[in-house]
Design a protein that fits this description.
4-stranded mixed β-sheet; 16 helices
């Protein structure tokens, strides 16, 4: 060793610091690599990703190899530094030289590469996997011995370090957090994905048109009134009933009946002969399940019934799609934001719709409409001018009738 020039020794020391930096940075990169992104790259047959995925199947072997290499390099660098210090200034230079080496390794071989590995894990991990695969084959016997000893030390604690690791499954709330924190995902896609994740927990009663607001054809009315209603209807499908919606006899598609209206012999039999069978939906049916049913049955409309068979509301395929993609029209007539930041809200709006539009978090487990939520909270139908704090929001009752609240003002939060 005394025959080797100082310039070569310094060159070897620099190389050892670079190798140490590689081990440190690649370790951080591989351990922080996004496993879902890695799986995506593996499916695209990315060669570096395939190798990295192979390494991460047994992280105990990978860590054993990295720590074996890193410690060997660091010890060798320390010994080389001692040798250089003695040749330059004798024994008195050993302590300062080790201090300089410690500082240099801390900055250049630990903090900097680990920071880079944390910030750019994919870049370092996929490149380093090409080196680790052959190294693991070469040093496998030594790595196996190290892992065996490590496993024995962990065994009393019930930890199996040699078990294969798989990507942990995520529950719905964790997936929602990932989607919400996805900074590069457009807001409209975030909202759609969050809505899809909520489909299982929401039932058709959360989005249905309440029975009091159902527009249909009452066969007890005169033919002239029915014709006028058909000609002016904004809906393409209408329930047909006798006296009340609980006695529905079918659904009428305007396209099949409008051509017959001009017929001089047009009467109610033309309507009943054009009806399709009514379709009933249990109130507890989830939105996700109902979408599957509509698709399987090739239907677009159904009536929601309770456990007694009474009609509670009406649901269409458009309602289900709107729950995913948001409002199908840009105007929000039920929720109007004022110049001062307050909201004037129709009390008949569903709480889910109000939360979706305003990004609030009003409870959806109980009443389905804002009117029901306020009445349940106050245990009475409040008079206009009444103000109350409702789940963190200061509201004011603007309008009501005999049995329901009609208009509510949400004051801006201070």
């Amino acid at each position: 060793m005394n025959d080797i020039s100082l310039s070569i020794l310094f060159g070897i020391l620099a190389a050892l610091l670079i190798i140490s930096a590689f081990f440190s940075g690649s370790e951080t990169a591989l351990m922080t690599l996004n496993r879902y992104r890695l799986q995506h790259l593996v499916k695209k047959n990315h060669k570096g990703a395939i190798k990295a995925h192979q390494l991460l199947k047994r992280p105990d072997r990978l860590l054993g190899l990295i720590l074996l290499g890193n410690n060997f390099v660091n010890i060798l660098a320390s010994s080389l530094t001692t040798l250089i210090a003695i040749r330059v200034s004798g024994d008195n230079a050993i302590a300062p030289a080790i201090g300089l080496l410690t500082f240099g390794m801390l900055v250049f071989s630990e903090v900097t590469p680990k920071t880079l590995g944390a910030l750019k894990p994919e870049l370092l991990a996929l490149l380093s996997s090409w080196i680790y695969i052959p190294l693991l084959k070469i040093f496998y016997p030594l790595v196996w011995v190290i892992n065996a000893i490590s496993s024995l030390l962990l065994w009393p604690f019930g930890i199996k370090s040699t078990s294969n690791t798989a990507i942990e499954s995520l529950n719905k709330d964790e997936l929602k957090s990932i989607v919400s924190d996805a900074n590069h995902l457009p807001t409209r896609y975030q909202n759609m994905l969050l809505s899809i994740l909520d489909l299982e927990s929401a039932s058709v009663t959360d989005i249905m048109t309440h029975r009091n607001e159902i527009v249909g054809i009452d066969l007890e009315e005169s033919v002239e009134d029915i014709i006028k209603q058909l000609q002016n209807s904004p809906h393409t499908r209408l329930p047909v009933y006798k006296k009340n919606i609980d006695r529905v006899i079918g659904f009428l598609h305007l396209r099949t009946i409008l051509a017959q209206i001009s017929d001089p012999d047009f009467d109610k039999h033309n309507i009943t002969n054009s009806l399709s069978k009514p379709f009933f939906i249990p109130a507890s049916t989830s939105i996700h399940k109902q979408m599957q049913i509509f698709k399987a049955e090739k239907l677009r409309i159904g009536l929601v019934v309770d456990e007694y068979g009474d009609v509670q509301g009406l649901v269409t395929l458009d309602d289900l799609l709107q729950e995913i993609v948001g409002e199908l029209v840009s105007e929000e007539p039920d929720i109007k934001m004022q110049k001062d930041g307050s909201y004037l809200v129709d009390a008949g709006v569903t709480i889910r719709e109000l939360n979706r539009i305003t990004h609030w978090d009003l409870p959806t487990e109980g009443p389905k409409t804002l009117n029901g939520l306020v009445i349940e909270y106050m245990e009475t139908i409040p008079e206009p001018g009444t103000s109350v704090k409702l789940h963190g929001h200061i509201i004011e009752i603007i309008k009501r009738d005999e049995n329901a609240i009609k208009l509510i003002k949400f004051n801006p939060k201070r």
